Amino acid sequence: MTAISCRLARAVNESDAADLVTALFDRWYMLLVRYGLRTTANYELAEDLAQDALMQLYQALRSGKEIQHPKAWTICVLRRNMYKQIKDRNLQEQLDETDIPGEVVTETSKLGDIRDLLSVLSPREEEVLLLRLDALKYREIADQLGISMNSVNALLARALRKLQVAMLEKTKVERENRNANQPATRAS
C-alpha cells in the first residue's frame, strides 16, 4: 500500500479527511485542470470539474470509503464528470475562428489536432493512454480499470502504434497539400 493510501486510511480513521484533501488539492489541482482542459478546451469548466472531483474524493473519505489509489480514482471521477458535462452541454460546437484572436486559434487548432489523433483510438486505449500520461503506474491503471498489467501494456502499445500511423498519415497529407499549393516551376 502506498504512503498516500496509508494516509488516506488514517485520515478517515482520525476524521482528518479535510486536511488530507487540502494537501492533495495543492498537489493535484493543476494536474486535474490540465487533464480536463485537454478534453473540454474550456479552462473555467476544467477548473470546476477538478474542484468537483476533489470534493467527491473528500465526501468519499468522510463516508468511510477506502480508496487504494486516490489519484487514479480522482482522475476517473473527473473523466466521468467531464464526459457527462460534455454530453449535457453539447460542447461539440465548432468555434468561429474569425472571432478568436490568432494565438487562441492556434491553441484551439492544436487541441483539435490532438483530439483528431486521439479519435483513432478505442475508448479503452484512450483511457489507458491518458492515465499513463498523467504519470499513473501500470499497477495503478490496472487496479483502477480492473484489468491486468499485461492488458495495460498491450493497450498502451496498441494505442502508440495507432497514434504513430495516424501521425505519419497526417504528415503525408500535409506534405501533399503543401506540394499541391506550390506553383510549378519550369526549366527554360
CATH class of the largest domain: Mainly Alpha
What is the SS-derived class?
mainly alpha
Could you tell me the strand content as a percent range? Answer: under 5%
Shape call: globular
Alpha plus pi helix count:
8
What are the secondary-structure elements, in order, as H or E?
A: HHHHHHHH
Distance between the termini: 76 Å
Low-pLDDT parts are: 91-108
CATH topology of the largest domain: Rna Polymerase Sigma Factor, Chain: A
The helix fraction, in percent, is over 70%
Architecture (CATH level 2) name of the largest domain: Orthogonal Bundle
How many structural units, i.e. domains?
2
* Overall radius of gyration: 21 Å
The count of strands amounts to 0
Query: Biggest sheet, open or closed, and with what strands and sense?
Result: none
The pLDDT mean sits at 76
Walkthrough of the structure:
- It is a single chain.
- The chain is mostly helical and 188 residues long.
- The chain folds into 2 domains: 1-91, Rna Polymerase Sigma Factor, Chain: A (Orthogonal Bundle), CATH 1.10.1740; 104-173, Winged helix-like DNA-binding domain superfamily/Winged helix DNA-binding domain (Arc Repressor Mutant, subunit A).
- The chain contains 8 helices and no strands.
- It has helices at 3-13, 17-40, 43-62, 70-89, 102-118, 123-133, 138-145, 149-181.
